[in-house]
Amino acid sequence: MGATPQRTQAGLQAARARGRKGGRPKTLSKDKQALAVQLYNEKKHTVAQICVLMGISRPTLYKYIESARLFKK
């Protein structure tokens, strides 16, 4: 292995030290995630309607629902 992976890791560590985060940003804020879960729990809207309204995919909605369930426990 060359020096490139070491330089990459050093750069990532330096960025983290400056408060930078890696990865893709979340689609929805925490408030909007809570709203999506609330709409789901009210049972007045279908999953498809909630997804269109919030601009997210079905798996993303289910991920938010599952994390809300785990947070409650």
Automatic annotation (TrEMBL):
<dbReference type="InterPro" id="IPR009057">
    <property type="entry name" value="Homeodomain-like_sf"/>
</dbReference>
<feature type="domain" description="Resolvase HTH">
    <location>
        <begin position="23"/>
        <end position="66"/>
    </location>
</feature>
<feature type="region of interest" description="Disordered">
    <location>
        <begin position="1"/>
        <end position="28"/>
    </location>
</feature>
<dbReference type="Pfam" id="PF02796">
    <property type="entry name" value="HTH_7"/>
</dbReference>
<dbReference type="InterPro" id="IPR006120">
    <property type="entry name" value="Resolvase_HTH_dom"/>
</dbReference>
<protein>
    <submittedName>
        <fullName>Helix-turn-helix domain-containing protein</fullName>
    </submittedName>
</protein>
<feature type="compositionally biased region" description="Low complexity">
    <location>
        <begin position="1"/>
        <end position="16"/>
    </location>
</feature>
<dbReference type="GO" id="GO:0003677">
    <property type="term" value="F:DNA binding"/>
</dbReference>
<dbReference type="GO" id="GO:0000150">
    <property type="term" value="F:DNA strand exchange activity"/>
</dbReference>
